[in-house]
Amino acid sequence: MPVTLADVNEALQAAGLTPRGAFNPRPEDGVPEPAAGRPAMTLVLTGNAGPAMWAAFSAARDPAVELLDDWSRDVLEPLARSFGALALFPFQKPHLPFQRWAQKAEACHASPLGMFIHPDHGLWHGYRGALALAERLALPPADSRPRPCDECPDRPCLNTCPVGAFRAGGDGASYDVPACARHLDSPAGADCMALGCRARRACPEGRTARYQPEQAGFHMRAFLKSRRADGSLD
User: Fold this and answer.
1) What span, in angstroms and rounded, lies between the C-alpha atoms of 31 and 6?
2) Distance CA 185, CA 233 (A)
3) Taking the domains of the chain in order of start, what are their residue ranges?
4) Which of 132, 138, 147, 156 is 20 to 30 A from 60 (CA-CA)?
5) Dihedral in degrees, nearest 10, Cα atoms 162, 166, 170, 172
6) Half-sphere exposure of 171 (CA within 13 A, CB side)
């Protein structure tokens, strides 16, 4: 029986992941071949939106010592094999154009903070991987809902950061990573470390998808660790 998008989405949900849209790629989209000589005809993105992924990850691994990237790979690679697909990840190198793919797969747009905003999930979502299939699956019409920020005149996300790390300009958003990292590494940053970025929390969209403290703290600690590694705190 031919594979359908519903089959793939159901398997992703059973693994604790959220389907994040799909599209039929063209050669210029840069999607790797699922098998030698077989171009990708469907790309299904997956990740998190809501509590399901965190519940699955924290039940299977110890978040204090395990990497979310490792769990993502361990979950998606066997699932990809079951569909004859290739598992792709935003953390693999050389980096793949996941942001461009996301904009083709669902209604995601760049927010004033730089991170992607979704009409349903707001800023509380992420991409953990994708499945590249050689089969051309039938897909629903593209979700063309507009960017929520265009109907948000106050844009509280831009004036809530305690250290003013985010700025909007003519060329788009700018993000002062060292200022953010130094704040998080100080006692004054305890609120953001425990509950998530204060600027992100100021966004009125997707409040029901907001990360719970355990997940928010996990992501903030991982962010701060990466900033120490790249010298942002020097």
Assistant:
1) 21
2) 8
3) 5-133, 149-229
4) 132
5) -160
6) 2
pLDDT-flagged residues of the chain (< 70): 169-173
3-state SS, 26-44, equals CHHHCCCCCECCECCCEEE
Rounded-to-integer distance, Cα 149 and Cα 133, Å: 33
- Dig out the tokens for 138 from the structure: 């039938």
Q: Which two tokens stand for residue 210?
A: 């907001």
Question: Which amino acid type is present at position 161?
Answer: C
Q: 52-60 and 68-82 helices cross at what angle (nearest 10)?
A: 100
Q: What is the pLDDT of residues 158-211, one digit of tens each?
A: 999 999 999 876 555 689 999 999 999 999 999 999 999 999 999 999 999 999
The secondary structure of 49-64, three-state, reads ECCHHHHHHHHHCCCC
State residue 204's pLDDT score: 95
pLDDT given at position 231: 80
At residue 173, the pLDDT reads 67
Predicted pLDDT at 167: 83
Q: Is 76 buried (19+), middle (13-18) or exposed (0-12) by CB count in 10 A?
A: buried
Give pLDDT, residue 193: 96
How far apart CA 129 and CA 127 sit, in angstroms, is 6
Q: Is the dihedral of CA 94, 98, 104, 110 positive or negative?
A: negative
CA 102 and chain centroid, separation = 9
Instruction: Please give the full DSSP string across 161-226, using - where no structure is assigned.
Output: -TT--EEEETTEEEE-HHHHHHHHTSGGGHHHHHH--HHHHH--TTGGGPPPHHHHHHHHHHHHHH
